Amino acid sequence: MGMPYERVTMKGQPLRILMVTPGLDGHWRGKVTVSQALRDAGMEVVYGGNMAPREIAEAAVQEDVDIIGLSILSAAHLRLVELTLHALEGKGIKDIPVVVGGTIPEEDIPMLKEMGIIEVFRPGTPLRDITSFFQSRFARRAAP
């Protein structure tokens, strides 16, 4: 049974989020857990697994997503985010917000936000806080 959240919509449709790990990072548990929580909250999750930055950009276009969620446990998070943002720019994508989750050192969060990341979720962030962030930041009521 899903949690009692309002259905989140954007453009009159459920909010579509691409959840992906850039590069070869082999973790998956956090990405799956957050993806399930977002689905339970009424969002549509496109699960991308592991992808190269250019594949992330291609998937964002093909899947017509509203948001990209990057899940990173690798110490190469700054470089992976930089490569992903460049790949998105190369596809002409400048309007899809990107969030990052994973083992991101506190001191790197300001750099990520300067790069254009709208939010960073570190280990231990309650799922309710993550879904509430998406609901409050991106919710749009569908036209009746």
Summarize this, please?
By secondary structure, the chain is α/β, with parallel strands linked by helices.
Description of the molecule:
The structure is a single chain. The protein is an alpha/beta fold and 144 residues long. It has helices spanning 29-40, 53-63, 77-90, 109-115, 127-138; strands at residues 9-10, 13-14, 16-22, 44-51, 67-72, 98-102, 119-121. The protein has a single domain (9-135), classed as 3-Layer(aba) Sandwich (Rossmann fold), CATH 3.40.50. Helix content is 39%, strand content 23%. Strand 6, helix 4 and strand 7 form a beta-alpha-beta unit. The two termini are 27 Å apart.
How big a fraction of the residues is strand?
15-25%
CATH superfamily: Cobalamin-binding domain
Radius of gyration: 14 Å
Question: Could you tell me the mean pLDDT?
Answer: 86
SSE topology string? EEEHEHEHEHEH
Structural class: alpha/beta
| CATH architectural group | 3-Layer(aba) Sandwich
Largest sheet: 5 strands, parallel
Strand order of the largest sheet: 4-3-5-6-7
Poorly predicted runs of 5 or more residues = 1-7
Domain count: the total is 1
- What is the class in the CATH system? Alpha Beta
Layout of helices and strands:
Elements: E1 9-10, E2 13-14, E3 16-22, H1 29-40, E4 44-51, H2 53-63, E5 67-72, H3 77-90, E6 98-102, H4 109-115, E7 119-121, H5 127-138
Parallel strand pairs: 3-4, 3-5, 5-6, 6-7
Antiparallel strand pairs: 1-2
